[in-house]
Structures are given as C-alpha cells and as structure tokens.
Amino acid sequence: MEKGKKMRATICIITIFFLFFTADAASKCKAWLVQSIPTDMPELATVHGVLSTADVLQWLAGNSSKSLDIIAQYWQLVPHPADPRSGDYGYSKEDLLRFGANEGLKVYKALENAANRKLPIRLLQHSGVSPDYTEEPSNLASGRPNVKNVTLLLSDWWGSGIVHAKVWISDSRDVYIGSANNDWKSLTQVKEVGIYLTDCPEIAKKVEIYYNNLWKLSHLNVSAYTRSVWDQQWQINRKVPCWSHFINPKERCRSPLPKYVEIAHVSGYPVLSDPYMSHLSMETPGVNDSSSNPQPNYLSFAPPELLFGKYQTDEQAWVDTIKSVGKGGTVRINSMDWLGQSGYIKETVYWPTLSSAISEVVFSKGAKVQILVAKWAHFINNTDQYLKSLLYSNTLCSSSKYNHCSGKVEIKYYIVPGYNSTGPAVLNGAATGNMYPGYTRVNHGKYAVSDVRAHVSTSNLVWDYFYTTAGVSFGTYQPAIVSQLQEIFNADWTSPYAVPVEPLEEGYACPS
C-alpha cells in the first residue's frame, strides 16, 4: 500500500515537472524574419523559413486575446480603384487580384473581427496619405468604445518629422517590427523586411513603453512642452521637446515621460557606452539552429527625446552594428533612401555619422561594406552623388604607401521591375500605360547585418529619421537570425535586380 502511494506521488511529481517543462518550452521566446516580396520577380532566390508579412499581420490581429496596439505611418489596406485621387485608380478587379490586393483586405477584415469581438485596440498613426488619410482607423474606432484611435503630428513637437515606425504589439507578448506600412501594396507590391517575435514579453513590454510615450505626446499641450534651441551638434536652430538633452540642463523641463538616462550636457545627444541588452534564449523555428545559449538582444528608438531606461538611440544602434564587424568581415546594409544630410527640414544638416562609421571599419578592420539602395519612381535627387562619394573611400584606402588598408565599399541600386511604370491606370480619362499602382515596386526594407549582429529597423538612412521622426529597431546577436538576414541580403545582392553604382569619374574632386 505504502509502495503504491510512493509510486503515485512519484508519477504526480514527474507529471507536474513534465507539464511545467513543456509549458516553459512552449512559452520560450521565438523569432522569425518576415518579408514581403513583390509579384513578378521570378529571378529572386527564395530564403527558406522566412514568413510572409501578410500572414503575420493576420495572425497578430486574429490571435490577440487581451490587447492589440498598432503604430502606422498610414493606412490603405483596402484598395481604391474607383477613386481618381488614388494610385490604384482605373485598375480592374482582375488586376487587383493579380497584384495581391486581397491580402490587404484579409488583414483589414481580421482587424475588423478583432474589434467586433471587443478586443481592446489602440491605433496610432501619422496623418496618412491621399485619398483616405486616416479613414480606415477611424472606421475601425467608430461606434466601438474598445478601439481607440489617435493621429500624432510630430512636426508639432520637432518642427518636422512624422510617425514612421511600423509596429504591432499583441497581448504584451508578441510583436512585429519592420518596414511594412499598413497598406495592401506593402504586402505584395513592395519589398519589405521585418522581424516577428512571439512569447517575448520582456521585449514586447519595452516596445509598449515607447508606444505609450507616443500616445501620451498626442494628448499633451505642445506649446507648454516645446522650446526653440540652438542645436550645437548640428549647427541649426530647431524646435525640440523641453526635456531634450540638446537643451542646457538648467533650462530643461521635467519630462512627462518615463525617466531616461540622465547624463551631463554634452555637445550633441549622449551616446551610451553600455546600452541595455536583454540576454534571451531565443528559438528560431524558421532556421535549424542547434545553439540554445542566451544571446544579447536590444531595442533602439528615435527621436532621442523618446528614450527611456538605458535604451540607445536608433542612430547609435546603426553605428554599433556597422562597428560590430570583425577584421576582414562584411557588413551588409539595406535601405530605401540614403543621404548624408537632412531631407525634410528648413535648414540643411550635414550628417556624416554612418559614412564615418563605414570608413572606420574599412580602414581599421579591412572590412567589406556592401550597400543596397532602392532606385524607384520617387528616388531622392543627389543620392547618386552621395553614394559615389562613399565609393571614394576605396581610393583613399589605397592612397598612401603607409596605408595597410584592405577594406572596400561596394554599392548597388536595387531595381524592382516595373518601378518606372507605376501610378493610376487612368488619368484625366485617358489610359496611362502604367503597369502597377502608384508608390509600389520598391525595395523598402531597412536593416544592417554584420558577421555577428543583425539590426532590423523602420528608419531610412537620412538625418531626419533619427532626430525628428518616430522609429524603432530590434537587434540581436542570435546566430541563426544573423545568418538568415545575411541570406536575405545576399539573395538581393546577387540577383539581376541589383545594379552596381559606378565609382567617381577620374579627376572628380569631392566637395569640401
């Protein structure tokens, strides 16, 4: 009898241990890289184990049971082929089906279903784009007290800038961070890269703090919390929140947001020597990875005034990723836009931060730096001149017999087929000959990956995105994610869609 009791007790303990172990294993943080790949790109090699953006956004909306928070620049999940103001105008139902517009409708329907089942939802965005601006989030919130909707104009706070982050947070546990807008074209007609993290409350709750900071900004009296300041680092007069480190400590106000690192005033925004990193054991179901050791992971944010705790600016995270490359290693950088200056404020800022970091690793570490920049219908003027000046590092690298410099910069334009045939199918009653809707056929991803570190961002590489615009990045040293992001980059780099940028002509002098 006693023996039977002991056996039952042992079985009970084993069962409890098994249930605890499996529950713990089931809730282990998991990470997938996520892509959108435009239709009609048959020569692009696929990368195994990468999820579809459309699927991930549907899952987040469909599986949320406690809360869903979304940051978006704009919304156009539903196409507008009948609206003359839209880049979708004039395309047939068959065209839209071929373009994959149905994926956007599925995401919108999943959000509608979530709203109808009384899920608490918060929607935060910039003012949006023509023709519907904030119509979709407004419709989702209309008549539903469980759905809150806010438009935040960062230009009121920084003089310029927008909400540019693309983030979904589900149940304070799951999160998407990436380049995809809440737009049907971002799911099937624009090339996007992001990361999807599940059962990662430590990460999701920190992103939630950033979300809450943006939400609070939208409800504060802007005039009471902003100042005009001479920015000593960037040598311009500009508007900033009154708690900014660009203001002398004695003149700063008390921040209404959670405390960030208090550092004595310096020329420019303080760089953290030891930014906070979480050390998580992260599973990568999309990649076979035998490593189960915890690896450092981090978050970074923009603008700097929205930092909290010991989290770093997004600019610093990009620089640190470039500098993480080992001797003789390779850094791969992908961006839609790249300009060594500001692009959207009244006074022009010269911004050498990333180009300096690139030159440093080329010279000191003999690193190879490969850069992909999008060439598309809305290409920024003078990008070509700037990129060619980056290539001048190769000349400088070998300019002296005393230079033992073996590094190199390589740059290619990424050209999605059909980029120069985008826009409405009909304009002023006449056929345009366009093959694809407006603002499509572009490589829109923003990320960097060295041989040890992967950085997935929402920011283009222009000054404004780091100092006046809302952006979020996630980075990791997890080997499987690093390797897979390299594979995504290499598939693009070696495809026929990537065209080399030619170096400066002989005798060209860089502008002083």
Question: Care to give the gist of this entry?
Answer:
The chain has helices at residues 2-26, 53-63, 93-99, 102-116, 135-141, 155-158, 185-188, 201-217, 314-323, 353-365, 383-397, 464-467, 479-493, and strands at 30-36, 51-52, 68-72, 75-76, 121-125, 147-151, 167-170, 174-178, 182-183, 192-198, 226-231, 236-241, 278-280, 295-302, 312-313, 330-335, 368-374, 408-414, 426-427, 430-431, 447-449, 454-457, 471-476, 498-500. It is α/β, with parallel strands linked by helices.
Describe this structure in words.
With 512 residues, the protein is an alpha/beta fold. The chain folds into two domains: 27-208, Endonuclease Chain A (Endonuclease, Chain A); 288-500, Endonuclease, Chain A. Helix content is 29%, strand content 21%. The strands form five sheets. Strands 13, 14, 15, 16, 17, 18, 21, 22, 23 and 24 form a ten-stranded mixed β-sheet that branches. β11 (226-231) and β12 form a beta hairpin. α10 (353-365) packs parallel to α11 (383-397). The N and C termini lie far apart (93 Å). This is PLD phosphodiesterase domain-containing protein. Residues 159-186 form the PLD phosphodiesterase domain. Residues 1-25 form the signal peptide. Keywords: Signal. InterPro entries: Diverse_PLD-related, PLD-like_dom, PLipase_D/transphosphatidylase.
